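Entry 0007
Protein: Sugar isomerase (Sis)
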Amino acid sequence: MNRNTIAIKIKSIYRDLNDRQKKIADFIIENPDAVMHGTISTISDTLGIADSTFFRFIQKLGYAGIQEFKIALAKPGESNNNPSIYEHVQSSDDELTIARTVFDSNIKALQDTKDLLNADSFKKASKILNAAHSVYFFGISGSGVIAYDAYHKFLRAPIKSEFNFDYHIQLMMASKLTENDCAIIISHSGLTKETIQLAKIVKENGGKIIVITSYSLSELAKYADVCFISTSEEIQYRSEALSSRITQLSILDSLYVAYMFNNEEKANESLKKIRKAITNVKSKPDI
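Output (structure tokens):
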């Protein structure tokens, strides 16, 4: 954990903070040295808040206390750039410059998401998947494309996988989950009503839920047994929702690879069957 990670964490919760909490968040981002060298009392006095309010905000970021928070704040990290400042494509840029800007944006999003990865979350998610009889993927619109990619990937795994683009069918699928099943639900905003309804149904039926979102305090995240945060960089003509795809895919890739390694013998047998079926329909090159 370092200063850059703290800034990324703040970004992931900022939208859902109240005005007082946003005031604290802004102060930390704009005055990291003052926070690092101050006490809870001096910082709280400066902000005009109670000591307990500042302490609860630190806990919301995932830190046990002020000392742990200051240690992280003291580490500059690989990048000192404020994650709320993006490099925009300029009208004078040529095609190669535009391409490099897009690549840089994706690389930064991946690095920021990597910095937020939590060992406990991956262990818990792996435990859920390893124990599950089946895994269902849910997502609406653009998130549905990500869910479909994950479904396509997990078809190679020795676990029953389900997905459908039709929302009504997703609702029916969600109603059939049991405590022996896992739902992986994807939503950049975590506010999509349809996705939240799916999570409610899964939870009511006892299914385990892994959520992938960009907002850890979102309504959807509240239903998660495990929540992964996918950060993203917005550039001109490409919203955060679109650019979060690459980080969402990377989290899903990680879950897939971990599952395959945890179930290596069955995974190898499943891959053999898949490869044999696909090989039989591939055209052979002319000799």
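Curator remark: Strands lie at 134-138, 160-162, 181-186, 208-213, 226-229. The two ends are 56 Å apart (CA to CA).
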